[in-house]
Hints:
The protein is an alpha/beta fold. The protein has helices at residues 57-64, 91-97, 118-128, 134-147, 164-176, 194-211, 222-228, 246-251, 256-263, 304-308, 328-336; strands spanning 6-21, 26-42, 46-50, 72-79, 82-85, 101-104, 182-186, 214-219, 231-236, 239-245, 314-318, 321-325.
Amino acid sequence: MENKEILLKVRNAKTYFPIKKGVLKKTVGYVKAVDDINLDVYRGETLGLVGESGCGKSSLGKSILQLVPVTDGSMEYKFEDGYKDLRKLSRAELDNARKKIQIVFQDPNSSLNPAFTIFGSLEDPLIKFGIKDKKERIEKIGKLLEDVNLPRDYMTRYPNEFSGGQRQRIGIARALSVDPELIICDEAVSALDVSIQAQVLKLLNKLKEERQLTYIFITHDLSVVEFLADRIAVMYLGRIVELTTSEELFSNTLHPYTKALLSAIPIADPTKKKKRIPLQGDVPSPANPPSGCTFHPRCPDCAEQCKTERPILEEYIINGVSHFVSCHKVKAELAAKGIKPEASK
């Protein structure tokens, strides 16, 4: 992906939520939902963002869209006249940017207003971004529904008349309504049955090819991103711990946290046995993350260095592809093989 155009540059991004206590609501600490993230998103790719619940995946997606206040860092999006930091845009400029960046939410039921018909839910963004003629809106919404494999006449119905899979298709149609370049799919299939998941994933792939879309696909299900993603970023407690191509991640897993996640993927064949890598304890609180490597209290390979020194996310070229990893033990193992971080060469 190195020769591809970078659509979004995330640099040192932090999203901290204040913890307030007492009558005066004094800030006594922060929940570090996103903690110093550096990430490039290439035009035309599907970037999978995975990790356990509470690792900061959704907070990062909402931070990119500026739906939650970002504490620090930059998020530069490539517009026609060059890169601009989304954090520094005026309200009008941010509205225009949201025409290019859309989101599909996790719960297709709560993301649609039950008092509105499907036409009513889908026409708002069209009105906001300049389609004032109702006949034109009807035609566009009908075409959008057809694009997500739903009949045109469904626009006169209400959300309660549809199944979960159909509602999610409507959510996808709404995201497509303003012709975006980047769509953030926030657990877009996790609330659906497995058979319906497959249909929606195939639909997303089809739309990507037809409309030259870029996806950030947020999920806790690694088997889903293996099917969909070009690259996968693994998050733990607000930080990225491993990032590489989907094929490389599954064939040459480096970080112990990623290995544990992969070992938890169920196998359909009951005759095959898979060694599970159990993790100790629960995910620590992002309000009080451990010192050093935040994964060290649960890591089966923890050393003394891990408890005090925070590892850096460094890039290596392995099997001819870029592979980022943040782990002291992995760094030492790669050094023993003569593989050094790219920055040190």
